[in-house]
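Shapes recur. Our protein:

. . .
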Amino acid sequence: MLYTFNQLHSATDNCTGTLNVTGTRSDNLPLGAGYPVGTTTITWSTTDAHNNTGTCSTVVTVTDNEKPVISNISDISISNDATFAALM
């Protein structure tokens, strides 16, 4: 089962200009892709107008605590005739 995760991120700087924040997952999938059970690290980074870079990371942990569901089929009745005996 896969889960999705939306992380709000922001960056500030003492210089003027726009800071674009990018995120890279440790499994190299797109940020909007489902997250598998286990841990996935997202490394966030941004670079200002003077090529100073800031980074941080977020660890996304998905646990599976849901029991599986099994469906029971109806009972089966078979005649014990010559055809059935030949299969045994």
Summary: The chain has one domain: 22-87. Strands lie at 22-25, 38-47, 53-62.
